[in-house]
Amino acid sequence: MKTVFSSTEEQEQEIASLVSRFYESVFPKYFTESEILHFRKIGVLEPNQSPVTYLATLRDAFQVMTCLQVLMSILDNKKRVMEPKSEELFQHNITLLNEYGIFFPFYYDHFSSINHEANNDMQMLDIQVANQYLV
What we know:
This protein is mostly helical. The protein is 53% helix and 0% strand. It has helices at residues 9-30, 33-42, 58-76, 84-99, 116-120. It is globular.
């Protein structure tokens, strides 16, 4: 018999926040708005319905959060050069996410060039409003 602890609500919120940051900050640097909308439609960074899926244990939640943070850190690094070490780390974290059932169908090469068209007219996607009143 094995005892496991379930993830906390705060961890689930943090995972949701990290996924939102990917869509709001990371993806717009590399992809067009239509591509990003397609990613949302096909369920990128969403748990898939495979038999091997994210089970929401404490350890799993920490692993998923860490993978997302490492991927963002690599992609946000402005001085990043196509280093083999970064590519290995990037691929390792993608593999872990996929093992936990989080759909992330990209390779390091997908993020090799910045989308200048998307950066010039950086539109905010999926913004949550702070309040409901129009001022």
